[in-house]
């Protein structure tokens, strides 16, 4: 950190402040996303964090790094948002057109995170006490389970096991005792371990095994070939579609759901590849019968396990702009 930049920022130089915080912006945004599970909420939390840092820069004493000071502000802004959130309304019944779900999802606010925002490496590698690799700690499965933790446990887990802060540093960041941090971390780890998938690890991103599996998936999905899709999925595969809370688990439940979709759509006309949360993803397009153009109907993200698909998550089109997916495509 440049002392000159800090001095200029404290004197009201906004360009100097921007230069100070820019190296940390990306990783702070990812941290807010992990805390909140929503890309839009992460945007808001990051903006609040940077505003609070700008207004409170005189309070930065330099005892810790600027990065740690910013993480303190970001984490506490996220905690404030979590504690002020209103109780979620009860999950509605499944529409008559859909089969009865296997369960009701508890994280309807979940949104995917574009890999394009993960392109820049963080300013500083995680500390030596981090337990999760960066790829695992941004996966949809990880972020979903984190959302089920109480706010303090969530913050402690991310600061300790993802960012690698020591117990004493985490206590200082959150205004807790070290005993409270240790207790919260034990409870959070127990919940994470209980929810951890026992499936085979995914193939290497971009490698030949992944490409072969994804080619088969795309061929089956565009044709909505239910038998071929189910054959590609693990026996306990999940199908989710936030913000709708309906979840389908197991090959038979997934088969029944896909059969309903096939009767309604017949086929998907084009899948446009993107990546989300370090995982394969596509924009789904169907042909508009009036204009003949291809119309975006959603974004799907898959979780791979070995040579199978373990989870398929469909998101609404509201997230499309973050992935560079246009609402319509001409068929030229």
Automatic annotation (TrEMBL):
RNA polymerase sigma factor 70 region 4 type domain residues: 141-192
Pfam family, one: Sigma70_r4_2
Domain annotation SnoaL-like: ranges: 215-266
InterPro entries linked to this entry: NTF2-like_dom_sf (IPR032710), RNA_pol_sigma-70-like (IPR039425), RNA_pol_sigma-70_dom (IPR014284), RNA_pol_sigma-G_actinobac (IPR014305), RNA_pol_sigma70_r2 (IPR007627), RNA_pol_sigma70_r4_t2 (IPR013249), RNA_pol_sigma_r2 (IPR013325), RNA_pol_sigma_r3/r4-like (IPR013324)
SUPFAM superfamilies, sorted: NTF2-like, Sigma2 domain of RNA polymerase sigma factors, Sigma3 and sigma4 domains of RNA polymerase sigma factors
Gene3D superfamilies assigned: 1.10.1740.10, 3.10.450.50, Winged helix-like DNA-binding domain superfamily/Winged helix DNA-binding domain
CDD domains: Sigma70_r4 (cd06171)
Stretches the record annotates as Disordered: 85-131, 190-210
Start and end residues of each RNA polymerase sigma-70 region domain: 20-88
Keywords: Sigma factor, Transcription, Transcription regulation
Superkingdom to which the source organism belongs: Bacteria
Similarity section: Belongs to the sigma-70 factor family. ECF subfamily.
Subunit field text: Interacts transiently with the RNA polymerase catalytic core formed by RpoA, RpoB, RpoC and RpoZ (2 alpha, 1 beta, 1 beta' and 1 omega subunit) to form the RNA polymerase holoenzyme that can initiate transcription.
Protein name listed in UniProt: Sigma-70 family RNA polymerase sigma factor
Species in which this protein is naturally found: Pseudonocardia eucalypti
Lineage of the species this protein comes from: Bacteria, Bacillati, Actinomycetota, Actinomycetes, Pseudonocardiales
């Amino acid at each position: 950190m440049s002392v000159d930049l800090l001095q200029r920022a404290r004197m009201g130089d906004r360009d100097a402040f921007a230069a100070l915080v820019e190296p940390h912006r990306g990783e702070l945004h990812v941290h807010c996303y992990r805390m909140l599970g929503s890309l839009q909420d992460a945007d808001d939390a990051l903006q609040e964090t940077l505003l609070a840092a700008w207004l409170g820069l005189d309070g930065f004493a330099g005892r810790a790094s600027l990065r740690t000071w910013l993480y303190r502000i970001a984490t506490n802004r996220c905690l404030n948002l979590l504690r002020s959130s209103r109780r979620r309304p009860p999950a509605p019944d499944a529409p008559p057109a859909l089969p009865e779900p296997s369960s009701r999802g508890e994280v309807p606010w979940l949104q995917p995170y574009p890999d394009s925002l993960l392109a820049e490496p963080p300013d500083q590698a995680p500390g030596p006490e981090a337990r999760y690799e960066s790829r695992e700690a941004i996966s949809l499965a990880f972020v979903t389970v984190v959302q089920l933790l109480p706010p303090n446990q969530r913050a402690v887990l991310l600061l300790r096991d993802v960012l690698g802060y020591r117990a004493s540093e985490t206590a200082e960041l959150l205004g807790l005792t070290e005993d409270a941090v240790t207790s919260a971390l034990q409870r959070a780890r127990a919940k994470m371990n209980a929810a951890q998938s026992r499936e085979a690890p995914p193939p290497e991103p971009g490698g030949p095994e992944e490409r072969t599996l994804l080619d088969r998936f795309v061929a089956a999905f565009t044709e909505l070939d239910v038998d071929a899709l189910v054959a590609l999925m693990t026996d306990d595969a999940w199908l989710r579609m936030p913000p709708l809370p309906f979840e389908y688990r197991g090959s038979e439940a997934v088969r029944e759901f896909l059969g309903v979709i096939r009767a309604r759509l017949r086929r998907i006309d084009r899948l446009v590849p993107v990546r989300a949360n370090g995982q394969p993803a596509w924009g789904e397009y169907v042909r508009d019968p009036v204009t003949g153009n291809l119309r975006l109907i959603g974004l799907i993200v898959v979780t791979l396990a070995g040579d199978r698909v373990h989870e398929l998550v469909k998101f609404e089109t509201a997230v499309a702009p973050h992935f560079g997916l246009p609402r319509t495509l001409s068929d030229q």
